[in-house]
Write a structure and sequence with these properties.
With about 375 residues, the chain is an alpha/beta fold. About 50% of the residues lie in helices and about 15% in strands. The strands form two sheets. The protein has a six-stranded mixed sheet, with helices on both faces.
């Protein structure tokens, strides 16, 4: 009887193992899973933040937005407005979250107006830390802020005191990319002077903005030149527009003035294309710096605080309670999930009973001391 089973055929050539196919596996898995990125935009009202974001990603993130009047802005506090949109391009999905900060710098007294922004970044770190430390770590949603576009007004002569305070408070928690807004209000010479002034003040105040990584020696010359031009363009002087204008028979995104057209995507007119290229080509590096530097700093501080608290609790409860807690942790590691929860719950109840007993003992000792003091006072009064 003939054997009709199909034989497995080696698809590769002899002498080829197949390690070179591993990047393709990672690529397929990454494309199937999709990507996540969180971008924060910070700056005063009227600098074109929303317009620029819509221009960058060719989408409308704020379809139902209401712009407050001047009277409302006087008393307005800083709000955190996070908008998430799913973008798909050539089969690659990106879950983009844009965090806007309406009200920043609009009040008469803008002191500490960046505190809610700082709290929001810490809250996202705390949420990720909690999810990472939990039992279900398979589907963790990464809402950490990977990049912050900080919009600088083109009407001043450099950084304002609020700009300096904000960047000094947040430069060790998020990747800051300085952006000069509404660059079409400046001449090319004024743009160059303002850029030099801003970089000088950033260096003078010890502010650490996002530094693009150096190119590897084996990269091609075109990519090296692109990286050099991107680094030289910081801070990026940009113009945003959602209008399509016809110029010489071609539709372009830009702004129409009596003296001509400012093309948003023309590198000779502004740095819009350079900013978008920097964000797209270095998106993975922005995420890695957030994970390896900013989040690790937060995580190490959090673990140190928890360790100090645990040490203080062990000292307060005594050696027997500390040993019981250690035994509970060891037993919880070995058993199944249901048994772990049961053991931890029992030990927590035992610790709570010990704390209550310790409180009762302290109360009894205080009462005894009070009784002894009262007795000593009575004896002294009899002697007198």
């Amino acid at each position: 009887m003939a054997d009709h089973r199909q034989q497995f055929v080696n698809p590769e050539q002899p002498g080829y193992v197949g390690f070179a196919n591993l990047p393709n596996q990672v690529h397929r898995k990454s494309v199937k899973k999709g990507f996540e990125f969180t971008l924060m935009v910070v700056g005063e009202s009227g600098l074109g933040k929303s317009t620029l974001i819509n221009s960058l990603f060719l989408t409308d993130l704020y379809p139902e937005r209401e712009i407050p009047g001047a009277a409302e802005k006087i008393e307005q506090t800083v709000k955190i407005d996070a908008s998430t949109v799913e973008i798909e391009e050539r089969g690659v999905k990106l879950r983009l979250t844009v965090v806007d900060t309406p009200g920043y710098g609009d009040a008469i007294n803008s002191k500490d107006c960046f505190r809610p922004i700082l709290q929001y970044i810490d809250d996202q770190f705390e949420r990720y830390f909690h999810d990472e430390s939990g039992l279900n770590r398979r589907n963790i949603v990464d809402n950490r802020v990977h990049c912050c576009f900080y919009f600088i007004s083109p009407y001043g002569h450099g950084l304002k005191p609020l700009d300096v305070e904000f960047m000094k408070a947040l430069h060790h928690k998020v990747n800051i990319v300085p952006v000069i807004a509404k660059a079409d209000t400046l001449t090319p010479k004024e743009v160059r002077n303002l850029k030099a002034r801003i970089l000088e003040e950033i260096s003078q105040h010890g502010i650490k903005i996002y530094q693009m990584p150096d190119c590897d020696s084996d990269e091609d010359e075109d990519f090296k030149e692109q990286c050099r031009l991107l680094k030289a363009a910081v801070p990026f002087a940009v113009v945003g527009s959602n209008q399509m204008i016809e110029v010489k028979g071609k539709k372009v995104r830009g702004r129409l003035y009596p003296w001509g057209v400012v093309e948003v995507e023309n590198p000779e007119h502004c740095d819009f294309i350079k900013l978008r290229t920097m964000l797209i080509t270095h998106m993975q590096d922005l995420q890695e710096v957030t994970q390896d530097v900013h989040y690790e700093n937060y995580r190490s501080e959090k673990l140190a605080i928890n360790k100090r608290r645990a040490g203080g609790a062990a000292v307060a409860l005594g050696p027997s309670a500390a040993a019981g807690a250690a035994g509970a942790a060891g037993a919880a590691k070995e058993g199944p999930p249901e048994e772990k929860d049961k053991i931890l719950l029992e030990k927590e109840q035992e610790l709570q009973r010990m704390q209550e007993m310790l409180a009762r003992l302290q109360q009894q000792m205080q009462q005894q001391q009070t009784t002894q003091v009262a007795g000593a006072n009575n004896v002294q009064s009899h002697h007198v």
